[in-house]
Amino acid sequence: MVLHAEVAVVGAGMFGSAAAKYLARGGADILVIGPGQPPRDGTPPSPAAFGAHHDEARIVRRLGWDQVWGTLDTRSADRMRALECASGIGFLTECGALALMGKGVRHRTAEMLRLSAAAGVTVEELSGSALGLDFPDLALPPVAGGVDGLLERRGAGYLNPRLLVAAQLRLAAAAGARLLAGEVTAVRKDPSPGGRWLLRATTADGVAVQARAEQVVVATGALANQSGALPAGQRLDLYAFTEPNLLFEVPAGQLERLGALPTVVVVDPEDRGNDNLSVYLLPPVRHPDGKWYVRIGPGMQPLVRELRTGEEALAWCTGGTLTTKQSRFLTTMLRTLVPALEPVSVRPACCVVDKTPTRHPYIGPLRDHDGLFVAVGGNGHGARGSDEIGRLAANLVLGGEWDFPLPREVFAPVDAPSPRTSGADRPAFLTPPFGLC
Ligand SMILES: Cc1cc2nc3c(=O)[nH]c(=O)nc-3n(C[C@H](O)[C@H](O)[C@H](O)COP(=O)(O)OP(=O)(O)OC[C@H]3O[C@@H](n4cnc5c(N)ncnc54)[C@H](O)[C@@H]3O)c2cc1C
């Protein structure tokens, strides 16, 4: 079977589904290729099937670590309620979002507040005692020098990433996009003049399909370099890491009380290796097994491990276990932040995040591949800004005017250095401060 499209979007995740919606709305004939959502408690059968959206909650906030993320996140968050209405799929829970910023980055905190105010985002600065009144079940982390509390109450909390993707794909389809449930295994350009991009794919039922497209958007997430969706020899300066999480089951009797918690991120700016206290925490969220869990994950401490091959990533996602060090760290932080929680059970979740050395997403054309664009590099917090990331990618493909307040070069994709330089020593993006997860 051979399919034809003006634009093929590879990857129906957070960035790809948003890009597909905006491309289809812009009038382009779109084919989206991506594996459907796996069973909610299933394991991914291949690296291409890994999606960071196969989960129940991602923190939503407008307050950004810098103007790039702040603008991406604010623009996306501002559209979320409208997106819910238009798609008929609800995905946002407004429980508030709290950032506990180590005082060692007071200058950065002040700048973040300045940017938020300029963008019209209401962020309250709360002292420890004020936080105690608002959130009696939340204790402060022992970050050296103390923390400043920044709270966003409105339009902030968490989104369900599965449902956001479903909403985006529904709207993309309503605007005319076609969706092929499958995995792309190879992408190459027909070398003849005016030649098209040729994509080889396998459908969910194992049928081999070819697609021909004038332009391609690769939005294959954390394992983009391992996904088979980039032309042979093309690698991005983008790295995948283990993301060890622990889920603490909340007893029914504590649900109401702990349900009042906001989402929390702790920013510990000190470079103290594994003793860095940066973490994120989600309030009780209902999971597919019907139970409610408080989730905790690390910032970017060295205790995470790089995943270099698809096989390594797959082994981690399907059969990985947290190391004793990881479990001990996350458990200690959970007990510190929510001392009242008496968990019924604890279970690990072995996830994957990506990081770019620029710490920003790559959105744009690849230099040596005319008509091939990427939208990748969520850096562990791309869900909340995904609608704007997809919009920017679509706008570039459609040749629209650049309408982001910072130059498009901020998002320029970077090729992986050859020979590879990061990896021997701890790369700069693994040193704190890690930004806002
Ligand atoms: C544990 C965890 C916690 C996180 N917490 C937050 C948070 O609190 N807030 C936040 O904003 N963000 C958070 N993130 C980050 C956020 O989920 C990601 O940044 C976001 O999902 C990135 O979107 P993406 O489209 O790049 O990748 P994904 O959402 O992973 O989508 C990529 C898609 O491409 C598909 N694909 C891959 N290869 C192929 C192929 N060959 N052919 C076809 N399809 C392919 C995959 O199956 C997948 O569907 C978190 C991530 C993790 C893992």
Structure commentary:
This protein is of the alpha+beta class. It has two domains: 2-54 and 162-237 and 357-430, FAD/NAD(P)-binding domain (3-Layer(bba) Sandwich), CATH 3.50.50; 95-159 and 239-353, D-Amino Acid Oxidase, Chain A, domain 2, CATH 3.30.9. Helices cover 24% and strands 27% of the residues. It contains nine helices and 19 strands. Strands 5, 6, 7, 12, 13, 14, 15, 16 and 17 form a nine-stranded mixed beta sheet that branches. A five-stranded mixed barrel has the order 1-2-9-10-11. It is globular. The model has no long low-confidence stretch (mean pLDDT 94). The structure holds flavin-adenine dinucleotide. Flavin-adenine dinucleotide binds next to helix 1, strand 2, strand 3, strand 9 and strand 12. Flavin-adenine dinucleotide binds at residues 10-16, 33-35, 48-53, 58-59, 161, 183-184, 219-222, 227-229, 243, 245, 280, 297, 351-353, 376, 378, 380-384, 386.
Number of helices: 9
Distance between the termini: 42 Å
Radius of gyration: 21 Å
CATH class of the largest domain: Alpha Beta
Give me the CATH superfamily of the largest domain: FAD/NAD(P)-binding domain
CATH topology name of the largest domain, in short, is FAD/NAD(P)-binding domain
| Secondary-structure-derived class | alpha+beta
Order of helices and strands: EHEEHEEHEHEEHEEEEHEEEEHHEEEH
Which runs of at least 5 residues are low in confidence (pLDDT < 50)?
A: none
Helix content: 10-25%
Question: Can you give the mean pLDDT?
Answer: 94
Largest sheet: 9 strands, mixed
Q: In the residues, how many domains can be counted?
A: 2
What's the architecture of the largest domain in CATH terms?
3-Layer(bba) Sandwich
The strand count comes to 19
